[in-house]
Amino acid sequence: MVHEMIDGTYRQTNLPNESPEYLAKREELRLAEIELLNTRERVAALRRGLPKGATIQDYEFLEGPTSFDEGDEPVRKVRLSDLFTSPDRSLVIYHFMYGKKQTAPCPMCTAWIDSYNGIAHHLAQNVDLAIVAAADPSTLAIHGWPTTSKSAALMS
Known about the structure:
By secondary structure, this protein is an alpha/beta fold. Helix content is about 35%, strand content about 20%.
């Protein structure tokens, strides 16, 4: 009875006391999931087939000193394109909610950033990682977040 058609419904399981109503809804769900899969594949194919879009300006971030001992200087400009270490690597940017109207660091963001410090060297094996905040580099340094990790840049 398992893996066969019963009353027009493909059965992968054979559980006792399954009502015909349950089986009908389960089959409806199975067909909807197949339709969703096919639609997602069609959308992905359309996305891959898009022609090249408009060229956008290379965004510039500010990166502060890499240690507390250096004070607030030097601050250097880093282009978005420079965050990619090679053309075939993905770039993960984490938006740290701090700066402008966010006058205090987001506690959840802080927790995530603390965890990234521990795993950034593992992530660096496969992706490039940058943490970006609206706060300026000197404000970030006040809270003890210099860019100490070579694997995760912290920028404004």
